[in-house]
Amino acid sequence: MLYLLSIVIFLLHLSGSAFAQADYRNLDPGRPMVIEDAQPIEFRAFEFQLGLPRYTRRDGGADALSFEPGLTWGFARDGQVGIEGENVTRRDGEAKNSFGDTQIHLLYNLNQESEALPAIALRPEFSLPTGAFGGDHFHAGLKGIASKTFGMNRLHLNGSYTAGPTEAPGRGGDRVSRSLYGIAYERTFPIVFAVVLVDLYAVRPIDGRRAEVISDLGGRVQLTPTWVVDAGLFRALRSEGETRYGFTLGVTTVFSFRRLFPTGEVGGGEE
Amino acid sequence: MKMKRLLSVLSMGLVLLFASAGRADKREAIFYLPGEYNFATRRAYPEFDAMLNVIDIGHAELAERLIKARSEAEAIRMIEEDLFNEVTKRFLGRKRRPRFSPAEETIAPESVKLAWRVNKAFDWTHFLHRQVYDIFSDDRVRNKDGAIRAALNYYLTEPERTFPLRIKSMRLMEGQPFSGYWKEHYPKFNGAIWAYHWLQLAGNEALLEPDPRARQMKMETAVDEFKKMFIDPARLPKHMPMAHEISPTFSARFPQIAATFDNLHSFHDIYMDILTNPSVRNKREEAYRQLHLMQEPIQDLETMPLHPLPSIPIERQQTLLQMRPEEAMAMMMMSTEEQMAFLAMSPEQRRERVAQRRNGEGNHPQGHSGESNRAE
């Protein structure tokens, strides 16, 4: 995690000198909603995102504040790889700070959306136990994603299943689940470079507790050619009747490094 | 048992879905070349940049409205009246302008589904357009020719998205069975599209001015002239402006990029003819066929000499821009001196001259390349 944070700080220093353009329509899990779209970031692009913070409050009064950095690389055409971490401060009588799981994901988009077909992507995910607020075991999961556009409206469907041991009650955090399925609606406002988002999904926690149904409401706005800001509210209802609610605020930037780009002679060039 | 059957059906459905997705067009979004100059046009010439952003909307909205219209009459009204008025308001600052360059798929989400490969080629070449502006807008870039060469080389790494480095025959734009439908039925917005292309070329020329203050003035004059065209649509170009006439300095210094932009602009017109002409039944198939023809690097090359004009001050280009397509075509065959004399003639004299040329060149009636124009 410290390694990840040091990369993040390094990149923040670099971002002033590198070209960047963030995409306000490219939905990533947690920024601000859990349901994501089927489009990866651009080939050769890097995306850095930072949840600043995610705040969660439970019925009993316990709350948690987490910072969620993530780094994604468009390593191939239609393919991305990313790493995300989480630093959590929980208050339940006393305050405790630690890290959650670290996640590594791949995402591959199979096709450009057409009149008939939605855009479809597959996302293998791996969770590594890296802190007291994460799990004790390694988990591997696979998510299927479909996105379909109807004019200025888009619908996204996500479904995932995670293999690996069931965690002890209370372990594993919110970032890894045994199964998840849900739908999101997105409305695009292209002239103001913003989207409004709402989603609804059901999730079975990895610690064996009963499923909960969560709804998110949020939006993303392109602030500059290089930065996107997002904000969201969520409310979770567990089968046992317990509710959680909270909010998140985050930023995303996309950039790259010139040395990754081929600019040598390729049969052309001005004479 | 029932669950087993359901799972089998679901699995089959998923396999079919993935198989279909595997055969569909690939998205393949690609990041454009990073450089210290990125977004320099936005910083140095914000009004010019704002025009480019509105032009992006104009291009995208046009295709979207064509796709959505239920009849040709409705399409003509939506484009010639509604869309023209809308973009005019945005150009003149009477309606909100986009702060950045909008992605076409956000403005035209339905029309981009029609021929995604065409959109990729348009976007990729528009990237090159923007990079050229940014390089010339940033005085920190000392080796501008080197930066332009790198941008062009990067552009050429994607052959499926590039337009050729030599000008393709005007026959592709003017001489096919579906040609001319767009400009005949949508004359005002066709003029708007040609005005967009004029501003892009005028910007290329103005940005080559070495003195920053003079360059700033030229850029402002170009934007003012552009706005005047929308205030008074009679000033909109009557033929497709080309690099050798509007940006001759740029064209001489970067002939390959100038040709690429001319080809891009020609293909815009070809694509509009395909979209609007009802005789083209399978729009996607024809669009991909035409893209293939346009991208073919050595066939159907233009053989007219296209002698460059001297750089005409922006505020004095109206005479040139008001030339009808047949007059512009005739000029492509003339020497520079003949073209200047032609420009100085009255409209009646020009008509007579065009008729004379046509009669005298019966073996080359349209003045552009024939069938055997393979690369020299």
Features:
heterodimer, A: 271 residues, Porin, B: 376 residues, mainly alpha
The coarse overall form of chain A would be globular
% residues in beta strands of chain A: over 45%
Characterize the biggest β-sheet of chain B.
none
Profile the largest sheet of chain A. Answer: 12 strands, antiparallel, barrel
Instruction: Report the helical percentage of chain B.
Output: 55-70%
Give the CATH topology of chain A.
Porin
Briefly note the structural class of the backbone of chain B.
mainly alpha
User: What percentage of the residues of chain B does DSSP assign to strands (E)?
Assistant: under 5%
Query: Helices and strands of chain A: which structural class?
Result: mainly beta
What strand order characterises the main sheet of chain A?
Answer: 1-2-3-6-7-8-9-10-11-12-13-14
Number of helices, where a helix is a run of at least 4 consecutive DSSP H or I residues of chain A: 1
Total strand count of chain A, please? 14
Low-confidence stretches of chain B: 363-376
What Rg of chain A, in angstroms, do the CA atoms define? 19 Å
How many domains make up the 3D coordinates of chain B? 1
**Please, how many domains of chain A?**
1
> What's the overall average pLDDT of chain A, rounded?
88
So what's the oligomer here? heterodimer
Describe the structure.
- The complex is a heterodimer of chains A (271) and B (376).
- Mean pLDDT of chain A is 88; it is low at 13-22.
- By secondary structure, chain A is mostly beta strands.
- Chain A is globular and about 60 Å long.
- In chain A, a hairpin with a 2-residue loop joins strand 2 and strand 3 (79-84).
- Chain A has one helix and 14 strands.
- Chain A has one domain (2-258): Porin, CATH 2.40.160.40.
- Chain A has one helix at 2-14; strands spanning 46-58, 63-76, 79-84, 87-92, 94-99, 102-109, 119-128, 139-150, 153-163, 177-189, 194-205, 212-222, 227-238, 243-255.
- Chain A has a twelve-stranded antiparallel barrel.
- Chain B is an all-alpha fold and 376 residues long.
- Helices cover 63% and strands 0% of the residues of chain B.
- Chain B has 19 helices and no strands.
- Chain B has helices at 2-23, 40-44, 46-68, 72-91, 104-107, 116-137, 144-155, 171-174, 181-185, 187-207, 212-231, 243-246, 248-253, 255-276, 283-295, 318-321, 325-332, 336-344, 347-360.
- The longest helix of chain B has 23 residues, at 46-68.
- Chain B starts with a helix and ends in a 16-residue tail after the last helix.
